[in-house]
């Protein structure tokens, strides 16, 4: 019986090639993407217990019709002018000085016929069932943009940085806890100056 | 002198590549672990609108997705060309959204159940009617945190 040698070595030279092939496959299929979008809170379904009476002048009514036309405070408005109008409304601060609603940081026209203070001002958005979703998002974007612009202004004045930056850092899970604690207060303070009060009525069908 | 001359006639030694597979495997494992395979194939057209005031949607495990749009060409014959809702892999009616949310919520760990966000991935050509129906359903099951998922860009491009 012929004596056998040691078992032959398996040739591992092509291992690297195989591994490369797999690597390239995973490289190509990987999508490290994070979705982004507009965050909104829906109103709870049960109506609040107490009926609050809101003055008409504190409501900024925005209507979108099926053709994408915009009615802001009973005036036909171009969507491009909406942000400006919303800012003017929110920042108005019409309450006279000395009253509890007086807004010391507002830089608006202080028109008594418009909103009393940012805390009282409500934007009401109403749309048709046939309105295009793209139009709706544009309007939402402009209204959120109006709030962000005002909040940025106040944050710049108080903390010398943009509110949107602060909020992004606060929401980022990688931010260390002690920084977050500090930011939390600042973010809260700015949010209280211009609370986002965007109400959405149910859509009308005609 | 001979000490220094020795090197000249020696051939350039080959680079040892024995550890190359190890390195490649390491990379391979990295990409294998970070890859997230898409769990549902889209059956609807899904061109999202643009917006500029967006916030990132962190933490994928806290998100429930709802897709809305026209059925793609292969489903057009069976489902028509009106906008439809897609939940997981199936087309669904607006009335099924509530049950779907409750089902998905039950699948998540207890501590996350109260912090879930519903991401609405809606085609920009869809009508608001269907969105309102979804929103109404979401309110019924108390899933109030929504995110209208968009691309980052100039919002006015949606109007064209």
What would your notes on this structure say?
The complex is a heterodimer of chains A (206) and B (160). Chain A is an alpha/beta fold. Chain A has one domain. Chain A has helices spanning 15-29, 82-90, 133-159, 163-171, 177-193, and strands spanning 36-41, 59-64, 70-72, 75-77, 122-127, 198-200. Chain A has a five-stranded mixed beta sheet, covered by helices on one side. The longest helix of chain A is centred in the last third of the chain and has 27 residues, at 133-159. The mean pLDDT of chain A is 81. Chain B has a domain at 50-159: Nucleotidyltransferase, domain 5 (2-Layer Sandwich). Helix content of chain B is 34%, strand content 20%. In chain B, helix 5 links the parallel strand 6 and strand 7 (145-152). Chain B is elongated, with a radius of gyration of 26 Å. Chain B starts with a helix and ends in an 8-residue tail after the last strand. Classes of the chains: A alpha/beta (206), B alpha/beta (160). Chains A and B meet through helix 1, strand 1, helix 3 and helix 4 of A and helix 2, strand 1, strand 2, strand 6 and helix 5 of B. Chain A: It is found in: Cell membrane.
Please outline what is shown here:
The complex is a heterodimer of chains A (206) and B (160). With 206 residues, chain A is of the alpha/beta class. Helices cover 37% and strands 13% of the residues of chain A.
